[in-house]
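This part of the workshop introduces the protein records we will be handling. Getting from the letters to the C-alpha cells is the skill we practise here. An example says more than a description, so a record of this kind follows:
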Amino acid sequence: MKSSLFLLVVLLGAYLKGYCQADEKAGEWPTWFVSSGKKYTIPPAGGNKQELGEVLKRQSLLDSSALAQVKYWNAGSPGYRWVNWMNDLWMSPAAGDIGPVAFMVLQVAIYDATVITWKEKYRHKRLRPVASDPGVKQFGPVPVSPSYPCETSVAAGVAVAIMKKYFPSLADSAMRMAERAMQSRVDAGLAYPSDTRAGFVLGSLIAADELDYVKEFPPAVKWNGKRPEGKYIWQGQPSFPTAGFSKTVVLKTAHQLRPGPPPDFARDMEELKAFQPGFQSTANAFYFATEPVWTDILKLKLFEHNIHLNPPLAAKIYAATAIGMYDGFVSCWDAKYTYWGTRPDQYDSSFKPVLFFSPPFPGYPSGHAMIGSVMAEIMAYFFPTDKDYFRQRAIDGAESRFQGGIHFRTDNEVGLEMGRQLGVEVVQKLSNQH
C-alpha cells in the first residue's frame, strides 16, 4: 500500500512539474507583433559575488511591509497584477476609444516579451540567488528557469510603457508598482538586482515596438453624427460608434464576419413580452450584467491548472484571449453601427427591461453573446476537458441579455455564431503556430 502511494505521489509530481514549469524552448515560440530575433539581446550579467551580498543585505532588513510585497507579487504569473489593473481600466470613461487597443496590446506585449525573455534566459543560464548561496532565503516557489533577465521585471517594463502611452495620468503609479515588483524578486531570493534592471529595460524596449506596431489600430475617423433612417433605428448617444473602423489582429477586416441585416423584431418582441422572469433568470441577468465573468473564469483555470507557475504559457493564454476579445469587440461593433439595430425598450416603449437600463449602443448583434462565444472556443482549445462548461457559459451569458430584457433572441443567436466563427479563426491561428 505504501509503495503504491509513493509511486502515485512520484508520478503526480512528475506530471505537475512537466505541466507547470516553463518549457525551455519557449524562447522559440512565435510572437505576434515583434521579432524574437537578434534585435532583442542583453549583455552578460557579470559576476554574482557582489550582488549576492546585496541580496543577503536586503533579506536581513526585511520587514512586514516588504514581505507583504513579496507575497503580493508571488501571486499569479508575471502579468497577473497588470492584466487585472487593465481589466478595471479599459472600459472606463478615462480610456475612451483607445481602451480596447490598450487592453489587447498589454497582454500581447507581455507574451511577446516573455518569449524573448526565455530566449535570453537560456542564452545566459544564470542561476538564481537561492540556488547559488545557502545563506539566501527562499520566499515563494522557485522557478526552474534561469534568473537573467527577470521575467517579472520584463512584464513590469512592458506595463509601465503601455500605461504611459494610454493612461499618462497613471504613469507614476505604474512606475511605483514596477519598482515594488522588481524589489520583491530580489527580496524573495529569486533574482539579482541586475536581473531586474535588465528585465525592465528589455520589457520597455519591446513595448515601444509593440506600441509602434499598433499605432494605427485605433479608429482614425470620428462619428459624423449621422445614423440611418428608418422606423426601428436605435436612438441615443452612441458609445464607440467608430470602433468598427479599427484594425484587427486575426480577422482580415472588421467586417469579415458581418451578418446580414436584422429582422423587424416583431416576433422577437412578442417572445420577450411573453417571457415571465423568475428568480433564477433574474439572478442570471444581473450576474452577467455586473460581474467580469470571463475574466474570473480565466483566472480560475490558470490557477486550477497551476499555469501561473509557467510564465510563457500563462502569457500565451492571456494574449490569445485578449486578441479574441479585441477582434470580437471590433467585429461586433462594426455590425452594430452598420445596422443600428434597435433595442426592446425602444421597439416597444411600454416594455420595461428587468435590468432597468439600456446600454448606450445598438442591440444587434449582442456583444455579450459574441465575446462569450469567442472566449469559450479559445478556452476550449487550452482547456479541452472543460469545453462543454465554457460553451454552456457562453449560452448562459447570451441568454442573460434576453432574460434581462435588453436584447432580442435574434441579437444573441447572431452574436453567438459570430463569436464561434471568430474563435475558430483564432484557434486555427494558434494551431498553425506549432
Summary: The two ends are 42 Å apart (CA to CA).
